[in-house]
User: What shape does this take?
Amino acid sequence: MVFTPGPSDPFYELMQPPPNETPAQKTARQKRELDAQRHSDKIDEDIKQERVEAKNQRGVIKVLLLGQSESGKSTTLKNFRMQYAKAEWSKERNGWRAVVQLNVVRSITAILRVLEAEMNGDSPVDSEDDGTSASQDSSDEESLKFIDRHQLLMIRLAPLLGVEGELKRRLGTGPEHAHAAASPMSATPFDEPETTSKRKLPEFSVRSWRDVVSPEERHSQSSAGSSSSKLDFPTDTIASCRDDMKALWNDKTVQLALKRSKLQLPDSVGFFMNNLDRIATRNYVVTDQDIVRARLRTVGIQEHRLFFERGPWGQAKSGNTHGWEWRIFDVGGCRTLRAAWLPYFDNVNVIIFLSPISVFDQRLQEDSRVNRLEDSIILWTSICSSKLLAKTQLILFLNKCDLLRRKLKRGVRLNQHLPSYGDRPNEVNSAIKYFRDKFKEIQKECSPEPRTTYIYPTNVTDTEATSTTLESVRDGVLRENLATSQLI
Ligand SMILES: Nc1nc2c(ncn2[C@@H]2O[C@H](COP(=O)(O)OP(=O)(O)OP(=O)(O)O)[C@@H](O)[C@H]2O)c(=O)[nH]1
Ligand SMILES: [Mg+2]
Assistant: This one.
């Protein structure tokens, strides 16, 4: 509003043009006044905009998914999207087909490399023997009996190497060792990164999922079930190699060679190999189960948004002014990537921390000197202790319970790797309770202010069970926000 004082106003005199003003001076004065008015209007507009944004921000929850590499962060995000962003999820589902195919092909080519090394009498490909593994099978010591059938399988499966290259090209995966040796590493986001001459990361990654799974991919994917698949070289080749892949996976000598090499195959390799009859076909249709099993390493930090109608501030209205928006950030968990987490800790409401509890006998891929469970505990301790995160709600997923169960059933003894486990029963429920107590204890001891941590034993590849967990997480976050906004 423009203020125009009357003649009786003390400002009246001040606002009068100077006497004897020339036309040029008048034009300059009017321009100055106009500029000042525009500037003032702009400030008013900015303030108004900030108020609108502040009002909208009331409904925004910032959620970080944290944990070491392969802990299941991206898999948890997939579950969130499957459940709360159904329309987008179904649009991008078919884009995951090539990622699944690449997972299958890479498992096979990794096995072929082990086989080749064994046949040539080379030392095991990826030996990580630290003397803590279960006692060696006496048959391991004998030389493996390779016969013509193995040679033949290797020759027949060789075209898959070309398929691997083609799929990587299509998916735009970065150079194989993008975060290779000599990248600075830090155990926690608060530590100064240190350069070591440690090893490669033989995994593939892309900058963003969206590049891979967007429906308007630069490369036309053959649509599932379409007869146009005649031009799809990877799908055709995979389908024609199906029986040989199955023969390779089910071969006893090959399994023995894998065991001896101590190659850490991806967690999902068994799932994919057992589903070759469905996946290695010309009209393969990708399922949600396949997608949560597919591994795609995260390198950049990826933001995904979810909208909920009901939030702590009431029911959604148009423009989401009263609904609830979750901004979920999925980070790369490798030690070379942890320094990049720090800027995201500002104003974060919720951290979902994933600690895989099946990994007590495994080493980090990026630094084979470090035990994975130990790494997870260091990371959890640093997150709990951070003053910057003192007010952040912590949710802990003790993940990969299915793999823990299987490992313990196989006879791997937890107390051999974790002496403090003592003579508790070597079975999954007792182990989960032990881990739950340990992680809770750390949280209680290290948190700068008292807070409650919600702890869930999970297997995030089980989409049904995870759906229930996510509902509970959502309700827990809702309750916490109601409490902090003092509405209850
Ligand atoms: N069996 C089983 N596999 C799991 C579980 N959680 C994750 N996985 C598998 O483990 C692999 C790694 O999971 P991701 O979600 O990609 O791990 P991440 O934490 O995002 O890893 P980075 O991106 O490297 O930080 C995938 O193949 C998943 O299918 C689980 O609870 N059980
Ligand atoms: Mg990830």
In short: The longest strand covers residues 60-66. Residues 23-57 form the longest helix (35 residues). The domain at 60-91+301-484 is CATH 3.40.50.300 (Rossmann fold). Confidence is low (pLDDT under 50) at residues 125-140, 176-181, 215-230, 316-321.
